[in-house]
């Protein structure tokens, strides 16, 4: 793929998307200066506001991809005045918020792609309209189980689930993650569901209360690329494989990223969308443009 550089940055416009349950989601649409070759939705990670993905969205728009970022309910510009007493389920981000973004961006005349980060890879198989997305590329998607992590990271994660998280939720009425410098504060329902599923080696696929989830993921036919850095302690390649096995065999393929191969010192769980990760973004767009293998 030939990468062009525009003399002026792509235009961006704030957008409000109303979901099926009439919640107002804050989004931003990035457009280049020519008719789009395709459209992209960025499906972000848990507790990460859409502003974090702005650099990627600007780059994609400069290459001809009209790109949408969004804040899930309870996050960023889509959060209420207070999270105390705010009721929602973690899966609302997929079933309602992201699904509404797909409806907003879908067009019969222009291909629609999705680029995910962590939770974004969980969300895709839950979408009632995933068939409207032609290709899906996700970074840092893993099963979330501490057992897939190095021992030092296991200790930190278990402290969060068993002690720090519950104490913060009891004190504030929500997960005050910002107090720890770990991201946006999270609604209580998100913490409750996330903590519950992370006790299972295959995340919610192992949850006996969610028997229908396997059928939902089994219906996915969209080609998927799942890329995980070898220094991503939260979602190492083996964690990715544990979760992505829930998608139909042959639908997805995985890439293990050595940061040095892309001229990067490190990536971790968040570095995929920092500005220095431009070589990774080029790989994303190259793959999206590839003709499907027959």
Largest beta-sheet details: 8 strands, mixed
Q: Going across the biggest sheet, name each strand in turn.
A: 1-2-4-3-5-6-7-8
Average of per-residue pLDDT values:
94
Structural class: alpha/beta
Task: State the low-pLDDT regions, or none.
Answer: 1-7
The percentage helix is 25-40%
- Termini gap: 21 Å
Spell out the helices and strands N to C.
EEEHEHEHEHHHEHEH
Number of helices: 8
What's the total count of β strands? 8
> What amount of the residues lies in strands?
15-25%
Q: Give the overall shape, derived from the CA principal axes.
A: globular
Report the C-alpha radius of gyration, rounded.
18 Å
Please characterize this protein's 3D structure.
- It contains 8 helices and 8 strands; from the N terminus they run βββαβαβαβαααβαβα.
- It starts with 10 loop residues before the first strand and ends in a 5-residue tail after the last helix.
- The chain is 30% helix and 17% strand.
- The model is unreliable at 1-7 (pLDDT under 50).
- The chain is of the alpha/beta class.
Features of the shown structure:
294 residues; alpha/beta; eight-stranded mixed β-sheet; 8 strands; 17% strand; disordered N terminus
Strand and helix layout:
Elements: E1 11-18, E2 24-31, E3 38-43, H1 54-62, E4 65-70, H2 92-105, E5 112-117, H3 119-124, E6 135-139, H4 151-172, H5 188-197, H6 213-218, E7 224-229, H7 237-244, E8 252-257, H8 278-289
Parallel strand pairs: 3-4, 3-5, 5-6, 6-7, 7-8
Antiparallel strand pairs: 1-2, 2-4
């Amino acid at each position: 793929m030939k990468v062009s550089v525009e003399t002026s940055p792509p235009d961006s416009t704030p957008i409000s998307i109303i979901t099926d349950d009439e919640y107002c989601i804050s989004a931003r649409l990035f457009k280049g200066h020519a008719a789009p070759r395709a459209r992209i939705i960025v499906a972000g990670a848990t507790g990460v506001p859409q502003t974090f993905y702005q650099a990627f969205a600007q780059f994609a728009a400069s290459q001809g991809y009209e790109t949408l970022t969004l804040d899930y309910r309870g996050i960023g510009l889509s959060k209420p005045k207070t999270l105390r007493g705010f009721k929602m389920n973690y899966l609302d981000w997929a079933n309602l918020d992201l699904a509404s973004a797909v409806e907003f961006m879908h067009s019969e005349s222009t291909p629609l792609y999705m680029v995910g980060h962590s939770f974004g890879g969980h969300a895709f198989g839950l979408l009632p309209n995933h068939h409207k997305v032609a290709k899906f590329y996700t970074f840092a998607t893993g099963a979330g189980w501490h057992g897939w992590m190095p021992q030092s990271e296991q200790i930190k994660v278990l402290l969060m689930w068993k002690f720090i998280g519950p104490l913060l939720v009891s004190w504030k009425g929500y997960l005050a993650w910002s107090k720890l410098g770990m991201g946006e504060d999270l609604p209580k329902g998100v913490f409750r569901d996330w903590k519950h599923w992370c006790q299972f080696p295959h995340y919610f696929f192992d949850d006996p209360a969610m028997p229908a989830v396997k059928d939902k993921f089994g219906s996915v036919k969209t080609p998927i690329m799942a890329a995980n850095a070898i220094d991503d302690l939260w979602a190492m390649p083996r964690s990715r494989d544990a979760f992505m096995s829930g998608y139909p065999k042959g639908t997805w393929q995985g890439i293990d990223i050595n940061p040095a191969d892309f001229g990067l010192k490190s990536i971790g769980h968040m570095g995929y969308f920092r500005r220095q990760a431009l070589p990774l973004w080029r790989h994303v767009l190259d793959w999206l443009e590839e003709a499907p293998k027959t």
